[in-house]
Design brief:
Order of helices and strands: HHHHHHHHHHEEHHH
Pfam families: PaaA_PaaC
Protein name: 1,2-phenylacetyl-CoA epoxidase subunit PaaA
Bound molecules: Phenylacetyl coenzyme A
Largest sheet: 2 strands, antiparallel
Number of strands: 2
Strand order of the largest sheet: 1-2
Distance between the termini: 42 Å
Number of helices: 13
């Protein structure tokens, strides 16, 4: 029988050779645990992430915009489902994940605890929030756990459409009336810093990065991805004819990157700990939807049981 230390060595060798880890493969408990943690947080983010945009479906400025927004919000629900399924392959039940979310035990992305005050926020979320999410998820298409990597491939295909629709929404506003231009700039101002926080704490404060990089769950650090995002956004905002709300943004010839200002980490941790502007509202909405959806889950189970019983009868 193989010793634990040999199993661990064989596991790391597989990771080093870029062989995906699949559900039935041996894996260290900590690898299983941290994947469950990250994948379930990611799933919760997609699902809670529907709420700020869902807020604008009934107020979209045209039928076309409404149809696009509905499709986008539905996509986010789908992403949540792919991810919950990926986490289930590691032995975590969907019920447990939901319970952990509703009790406040499980985290979801800080970004979804900010309010959506104007229609321009739909553009800013698409451009900045989906934009930040894509950078992260493109990296996660190559994550070492097979089901999570494959879920991210599907997610990224849809997410790139989300980013473009957001940018296009802002593009229209940025070429509109003075009020529309001001609304566009205001949304960028409010979403910029929270979008930078999405990448997580700075590398020196990131508790999970070292092991996640060793196991190729993450391929880039939080600060590397954040820098990539800043460099990209600085160019894109010029196309909009708008500005980013950071007086310290400046090209650094030596680093070949843009320097940027200090992130308000006190605000970040405050939001992560549940004290952001909309944390309570988001969880209350999710709890209400869960309670009101109980009959749908019961009906789905009853239908599945009936179908299974019929199949068994036919076989007999
Ligand atoms: N918010 O040690 P690290 C989307 C926590 S999807 C809240 O660096 P890690 C789609 C972290 O969990 C957006 N908590 O952690 C969409 C950890 O606590 P723990 C979500 C955060 O895991 C668009 C602690 O801080 N994407 O937007 C945050 O190595 C539009 C220490 O941090 C994903 O979830 C945060 N921002 O790196 C939907 C992608 N950052 O768990 C609708 C997958 C960190 O030890 C509309 N996740 N924390 O108690 C990841 O890539 C990673 O988990 C990171 C964090 C990069 C988010």
């Amino acid at each position: 029988m193989m010793q634990l230390v040999d199993l661990e060595k064989a596991f790391q060798a597989k990771i080093d050779q870029e062989i995906k880890i699949e559900p039935k493969d041996w894996m260290p408990d900590a690898y299983r645990k941290t994947n469950i943690r990250q994948i379930s947080q990611h799933a919760h983010s997609e699902v809670i992430g529907m709420l700020p945009e869902g807020n604008w479906i009934s107020r979209a400025p045209s039928l076309k915009r409404k149809a696009i927004l509905i499709a986008k919000v539905q996509d986010e629900a789908g992403h949540g489902l792919y991810l919950y399924s990926a986490a289930e392959t590691l032995g975590m039940s969907r019920e447990q994940m939901t319970e952990d979310l509703l009790s406040g035990k499980a985290k979801y992305s800080s970004i979804f605890n900010y309010p959506t005050l104007t229609w321009a926020d739909m553009g800013a979320i698409g451009w900045l929030v989906d934009g930040a999410a894509i950078l992260n998820q493109v990296m996660l298409c190559r994550t070492s756990y097979g089901p999570y990597a494959r879920a991210n491939v599907r997610i990224c295909k849809e997410e790139s459409f989300h980013q473009r629709q957001g940018f296009e929404t802002l593009m229209v506003l940025s070429q509109g009336t003075p009020e529309q231009k001001a609304m566009c700039q205001d949304a960028i101002n409010r979403w910029w810093w929270p979008a930078l926080m999405m990448f997580g704490p700075t590398d020196s404060e990131s508790t999970n990065s070292d092991t996640s990089i060793k196991w190729k769950i993450k391929r880039k650090t939080n600060d590397e991805l954040r820098q990539q995002f800043v460099d990209m956004a600085v160019q894109q905002v010029k196309v909009l004819g708008m500005t980013l709300p950071d007086p310290d943004l400046k090209w650094n010839e030596e680093r070949q990157h843009y320097d940027f200002g200090e992130i308000n980490w006190t605000e970040f941790w405050n939001v992560v700990k549940g004290n952001g502007p909309c944390n309570k509202q988001r969880l209350d909405a999710k709890k209400k939807a869960h309670e009101e959806g109980a009959w749908v889950r019961a009906a789905a189970v009853a239908h599945a049981q009936k179908k299974a019983a019929r199949t068994t009868q036919k076989v007999a």
